[in-house]
Amino acid sequence: MGATSAEHACKELGKKTAVTITDTFSDFTRTLSQYWTEAYEKAGCTILLNVNYLKGDMTFASQTDQIRNLATPPEVILLSADMPDMAVIVRQVRAAGIDAVIVGGDGVDQGEFIEAIGPEAATNLYSTTFAWTGPESGPEMVRFLDAYQAKYGKPVDTAYAVMGYGLIQVLKQAIEKAGTVEGAALAKAMENTPFTVVSGSIEWSDAASGHVPASPWAIVEYQNGQRSYWGSFQASYVPPIE
Predict the structure, then answer these.
(1) Same topology for domains 2-132+214-233 and 135-212, yes or no?
(2) Domain range summary for the chain, segments of one domain joined by +
(3) Domain 135-212 belongs to what topology?
(4) What Å distances lie between residue 156 and 159, 212, 239, CA to CA?
(5) Is the dihedral of CA 216, 217, 219, 220 positive or negative?
(6) What pTM value is reported for the model?
(7) Per-residue model confidence as pLDDT tens digits over 162-216
(8) Residue (of 40, 36, 32) closest to 12 by Cα position
(9) pLDDT at residue 81, as a whole number
């Protein structure tokens, strides 16, 4: 996810200078920034500044000043944080007049976040996420969305629902291939095997390679609070697993 977001920002959006914002509270947010930074620089682009944030601080004033005081304004900002802090950060960045493109992982693509920052701040915003929850993803996705609406009485508003359903689809196919639910055999059956899921397909490398997932990611774009499908994208380079 981090590598895909970084390469998309550098090569597809053409944003050559960046600031990274990292919530240091969790392994996930730290790792996302780490992979994003390495892949962004590998793609030939430049990190101007790395700023940290600690979950729960609920203010981003000093970090905003650091960004504004840069000699060269960043063209893109990586936001690696969680809600509700993520909304606080974006509101303060936009209120300071910083209009750089903001990118992030799947946490950006959720209704709670977009509602919290409002349509003006939710502009030039991109999320790299597991799946696009729209008809562009194909007839299997349409069937899933209709079934979800029928069961829960509301539309899917996040790719997390698709991710959960896809997990069960992978387990079903892996069990059928392994002929057992025994852990080691099931894990082995999942290596280097293409699985068909509602969002398309996914496979993982072997354990020695770090079980790196190989799958296109969905890029979701927000302009004035309106969500649209930019397209799918897969990184050509993923930093090695440490």
Answers:
(1) yes
(2) 2-132+214-233, 135-212
(3) Rossmann fold (3.40.50)
(4) 8, 27, 32
(5) positive
(6) 0.89
(7) 989 999 999 999 999 999 999 999 999 999 899 999 988 888 888 888 888 788 8
(8) 40
(9) 95
Tens of pLDDT, residue by residue over 9-23, are 999 999 999 999 999
For position 242, what pLDDT does the model report? 67
Q: CATH for 2-132+214-233, among 3.40.50.40, 4.10.520.10, 3.40.640.10, 3.40.50.2300?
A: 3.40.50.2300
* Cα angle, residue 40 at apex, residues 203 and 216 outer, rounded to 5°: 25
Strand partners, 126: 103, 221
Q: Which two tokens stand for residue 36?
A: 């994003």
Q: What is the full DSSP assignment across the chain? A: -HHHHHHIIIIIS---EEEEEEETTSHHHHHHHHHHHHHHHHTT-EEEEEEEE-TT----HHHHHHHHT-SS--SEEEEE--TTHHHHHHHHHHHTT---EEEESGGGSBHHHHHHHHHHHSSSEEEEES---SGGG-HHHHHHHHHHHHHHSS---BTHHHHHHHHHHHHHHHHHHHTS--HHHHHHHHBT--EEETTEEEEE--GGGT--EE--EEEEEEETTEEEEEEEE--S--PPP-
Packing angle of the helix pair 139-152, 160-178 (nearest 10 deg): 110
The answer to whether the beta carbons of residues 46 and 70 sit under 8 Å apart is no
- For the cut 80, the answer to whether the pLDDT of residue 226 exceeds it is yes
Peptide bond into 84 cis (omega under 30): yes
